[in-house]
Amino acid sequence: MKNILSILRNEIEKYKNSLEVIIGLIAILFSISTLATQIFDSSYSIALICIALFFILQRAFTEMINAKKEAFGLFVPKYSPQKIKWAKVLRFFSGILLVFPLFLLIKIIIVKSTSHRVDEKNIGLLIARFTNEEDDDFSYKLFSVLDAELQDGDTINTMRVNKFINIGGVGYLDTIKNVFDDNLYKKGLLIFGKRSTTSPVFDCNIYLNGILNNKKIIHLQNPDVIKFSIDYQSQVVAEFILGLLYYNSNEFDVSKGKFQQVLEINQNENNRKLIGYSRLFIGHNLLCKKQFAEAGKEYKLGIKVDSMNGYLHYNLANVMLATGAMDDAYREYTIANKLNNKLLNPMEERYSNLRQPAKKVKLAYGTLNGDTSNIHQEKVMPINVPAKDFTVIVIGNKYGVVNLKGDTVIKCDYDYVEPKVYTFNGKKFFIVKSGSKYGAFNNNGMQAVPINHPSAERVLEVIKIIEEVGDPSNVSQF
């Protein structure tokens, strides 16, 4: 027994230096991988680090094996046979560094090959953990509330993601995108944030991926000093998320009801972001139903609570533009741009003439306001062409429009209808007059510009802006 122990001791002494090298390298690799995980919240970044380390170690050990020195006029290996042997062993085992990149590559290939299995119409409602701990009561509760309402839906799939996402960390946006890729969803919502178990801190973030025509994060921070219950917070967030989903599905009345429910169950008037965004989407739902005045009221209520929300100002400006309040629209666009430089003011420079007093104009086939001044074609982008497929009719001194089939396009309710069609971007518009105000209808009989403008030229300019910026009911910003 003593002989065996003696032999083991001698062998350990023989390889003592090599073992120290191996242990040191292992420690370094673990340290680097741990540090990389903290610094880079992205598997792709870690994979690149592993590949770089592999090539560095390969070169270092190869140089060690091939190193020569001069001795007695000959070039012999610089290091002892034992060290060269260990260098070869370590060079071989450094290939372990390629395991993770190879695994990631295989995973990407599998995801790409199986992604066709998921219907692109499907929306993934993904709920991440709100604490670093596995047992996260809030995400469980939120999942149960949402899943109960959406379980009969064919296109919305609710699931929990066993991952905590630290917003603001380096690479966290890559992590968010990877969550959708890993779960084979091209679009949907990811709900993530932080809920402290020892303080009132509650941050909820909703990442919109490919829905509502945006990729944005909505931040709903709870500023309360009161620690609300999980049931309360999960119900508020769930109603807000359901409002977004129904809005995306064009179920505007249901969506509006959900956001109104958020406002009803909200227990704190200082929760400004939640209230502001709820008012914003209530306004959007009204706007999509062409209820401009009601939408404007909601945006104004939102601004009273959260005046720093640029989307509220921008959409209020859209409403003001459509209803003829040019100066007010210009002001709100300017405020929105200062709060968020991505929200550009469409009335700046090119449309500054809109803020000037309206000009009285004469149009072909009838003077709309009795003035004989000429309209400058370069200022009015829509051009007038004969109404080949439509006819302006008069019944009892009231004007309207019918098509060649005799179907009513515009009822005979107006004091005048310009007998030519104005076209812009392939769309057709009729200028109408009621009393002293002007507006426009499209060739489908839908009101394109409310009858609230002082001149025909002003209506044409508004059409020009709406067509370039977008119909307020279709391009609501948030």
TrEMBL record:
The chain crosses the membrane at residues 21-40, 46-62, 89-110. The keyword Transmembrane helix applies. TPR repeats lie at residues 236-269. The keyword Heme does not apply. Keywords: Membrane, TPR repeat, Transmembrane, Transmembrane helix. It comes from the Bacteria. InterPro entries: TPR-like_helical_dom_sf, TPR_rpt. This is WG repeat-containing protein.
